[in-house]
Structures are given as C-alpha cells and as structure tokens.
Backbone:
C-alpha cells in the first residue's frame, strides 16, 4: 500500500479536466437536487415542517444526488491508470474529487434548501461541520462502491442499493445533528465524534479493500 | 443429519406440548422460539459470510466464495423469517407491526445488506470478478456492526425487553429458557449442516 503524491495530484487533475469537458456528473447531481427540492417544495406549499423532517429531507436529497458518483469509474482511461498509477493514488484522487464535487453541490443546494423551506439555522458552524463530514463519508464509501458497481453488467440502481446500508450510520447521525443545528438544541457532540470515527474507519477500510479490487 | 432431524422434532414438540404460557403473552410466546433462533442465525450467517470473504481475498480460492455466498443465502432466508415473525409478534403484543425499534432497525439493515450482496452477485457475470467484489462488499458491510450494536440502541427507544440472559441473571421460566437454548443450539447445528453440505 503506497501513495504517491505526484500521482495523487495527477489523478485529481485528470478528473477535474475530464469533468470540465464533459460536465455530466456534476450537472446531473445539480439538476437532480434542484428537481427534488422543487418537487418537495411545490408539494408541501408553505406548510411548516419540523426540523427533524427538514433534516431528513435534506439528507435524502444529498444521498440521491450522490448516486451520480456511480460514474466515477466509467473512465476510458482506466486501463492506462491501471498500468501507470498505484491503487492508493487512484482511490484517494477519485475520492477527493468526489468530495470536491459534493462540496460544490452543497454550495448550491444548502442555500437553496434554506430559502425554499424558510429555515433559520441556529447553529451554522455545526450544520457546516455535519455536512462536511457527512459528504466525506459518502465520498469515501461512494468511491469504493463505484469501483465495485463498475464491474457489474446490470448497473441500474446498483450503486444506491450497495451504498445505502454502508452509509446508514452516517445518514442517521447526520439527520440528528442537522436537526439539532436547525433548532439550536444541545448539540449531540457524541454523535459528531461517532460520525468522524465512522468516516475514518470507512475511508481506511475503503483504502485497504481497494487494493484487492485493483490488482 | 438424522440426529439433527430428531432434535428438531423434539424441540418443536416441546414448544407445543411442554412450554407453559408466558405471563401477559399466553401462547403467543411460542413465536419467540422461531423468531429468536432465526435472528441468531441471520447474525451468525452474516459473520460467517464475512469470514469466508476474508479467506477468499487471502487465498483466492473459489470454494471460499461459494461458502460465503451460501452463508449469505441462508442468512437472507433467516433474516426475512425473523423479520416477519417479529412483526407478527409485535402486532399481537404491542399493537403495531413496525415502529423502528433499534432491534427492528438492526434486522432491517441486515436485510438491506444481504439484499445488496445478493443483488451484486446477480449483477456480475464473471465468476472471478464476482467472487472478488462480493468479498469486498461483504467485508465493507461488517463496518456497520459496531454502530448497530452500540450506537443505535442509544439513539432510539426500544420496546424489546432487556437481554434474556444478562449480568443480573436469568429472567425467564427455567423450562422456557431450556427450550429456547435448545432451539438456538439446534438452529446452529442446522446452519453448520447446511454449510457443510456439498452442492
């Protein structure tokens, strides 16, 4: 298991250039989240929603928007990467790029969500920290699951089927923390610590298991 | 095989003929002699599947993949049976089929994991690749276990009773407990038999 900084940066750069040219992954994530937001907002009209329900809706949208990451390994350069790149550089390079894509999505999604649902965030730092660590876990698990699902002949919906049970702990903790951040309830710090620990374990396990998949 | 069959018949007879009705539950208590062993087997099968998955990744022998898949298939049947029997018991005793109790959530996550694992196996046609990706997914899913066992019960209220066998001693009637333990042993023996069976 080795990680070459030069290769790692090259993988991120390659992902960035390819996505700038094609833009399909990011645009589909963006449009999906906008469509989902519009659907829910139009359906409920001006009805008041409890913070727990709002948090659940936000994370459901994030989860389904993240399914666009299943294209991470639909890469015409994959054979070249296998010859010249080491597995860890590719895993972390693709993971960091997924994280950047998800962060860019959140820059659009979060303000739109708060405006459409007329939410007042009582504890913005906690909300931002929760979202950051939530999407870290999704990116880590999503990169490995994307590599797994790329081997399948029938892929329709496979990525979300495989991803959901793995990120369920993050999902539940994130809803809990987001709800607390919206209401300014006592922030469950233990939930935040648990989420960070689970993220770290997920990324570490993803990195170890990716070696078996790659070679 | 014949001994396991006789043991199973004896336990079923004990459940319907010897076990007394439980206080507040009456003869509904009979459901738990099928529900608890099924839940027990679904967890054992989950770890067995992950164990053989790790062995496959280490030794790259296809027999370990077959054993891992077999454990997962047995586990999937058990987890479905356990969920259905639990939901019926829940409706009859607590008035609702489902309320996202921590243990219901745990068993539901197991259904999702088994379902995802078996779907993945169906979706990948190449034998070697299927074995590899299934093993990786099986091991990745083990990461959720500490969360389901230690964290989830603290997040949600539970209708389930405290563990039947706990540090404070045994809480069940001794006949009921003996039959339950025998049912657990029997189910484990059936699982071992099914795992060792050829084909």
Residues:
């Amino acid at each position: 298991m080795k990680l070459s900084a030069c290769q790692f940066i090259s993988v991120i750069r390659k992902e960035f250039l390819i996505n700038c040219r094609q833009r399909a992954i990011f645009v589909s994530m963006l449009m999906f989240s906008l469509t989902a937001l519009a659907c829910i907002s139009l359906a409920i009209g001006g009805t008041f929603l409890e913070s727990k329900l709002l948090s659940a809706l936000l994370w459901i949208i994030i989860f389904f928007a993240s399914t666009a990451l299943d294209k991470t390994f639909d890469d015409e350069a994959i054979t070249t990467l296998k010859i010249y790149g080491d597995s860890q550089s590719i895993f972390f390079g693709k993971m960091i790029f997924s994280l950047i894509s998800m962060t860019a999505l959140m820059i659009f999604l979060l303000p739109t969500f708060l405006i459409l649902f007329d939410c007042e965030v009582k504890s913005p730092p906690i909300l931002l920290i929760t979202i950051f660590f939530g999407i870290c876990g999704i990116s880590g698990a999503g990169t490995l699951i994307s590599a797994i699902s790329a081997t399948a002949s029938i892929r329709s919906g496979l990525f979300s089927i495989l991803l959901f049970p793995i990120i369920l702990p993050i999902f539940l903790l994130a809803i809990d923390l987001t709800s607390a951040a919206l209401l300014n309830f006592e922030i469950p710090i233990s939930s935040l610590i648990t989420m960070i620990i689970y993220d770290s374990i997920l990324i570490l396990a993803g990195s170890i298991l990716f070696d078996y998949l790659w070679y | 095989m014949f001994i396991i069959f006789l043991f199973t018949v004896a336990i079923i007879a004990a459940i319907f003929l010897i076990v007394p009705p439980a206080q507040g539950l009456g003869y509904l208590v009979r459901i738990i002699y099928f529900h608890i062993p099924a839940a027990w087997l679904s967890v054992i099968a989950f770890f067995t599947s992950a164990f053989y998955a790790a062995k496959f990744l280490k030794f790259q022998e296809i027999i370990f993949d077959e054993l891992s898949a077999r454990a997962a298939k047995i586990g999937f049947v058990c987890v479905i049976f356990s969920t259905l029997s639990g939901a019926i018991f829940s409706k009859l005793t607590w008035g609702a089929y489902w309320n996202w109790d921590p243990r219901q959530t745990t068993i539901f996550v197991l259904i999702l994991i088994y379902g995802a694992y078996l779907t993945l196996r169906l979706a990948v046609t190449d034998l070697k690749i299927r074995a590899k990706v299934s093993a990786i997914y099986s091991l990745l899913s083990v990461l959720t276990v500490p969360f389901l066992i230690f964290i989830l019960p603290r997040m949600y209220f539970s209708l389930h009773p405290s563990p039947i066998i706990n540090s404070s001693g045994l809480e069940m009637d001794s006949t009921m407990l003996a039959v339950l333990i025998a049912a657990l042993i029997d189910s484990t023996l059936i699982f071992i038999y099914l795992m060792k069976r050829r084909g």
Remarks:
- Confidence is low (pLDDT under 50) at residues 164-170 of chain B.
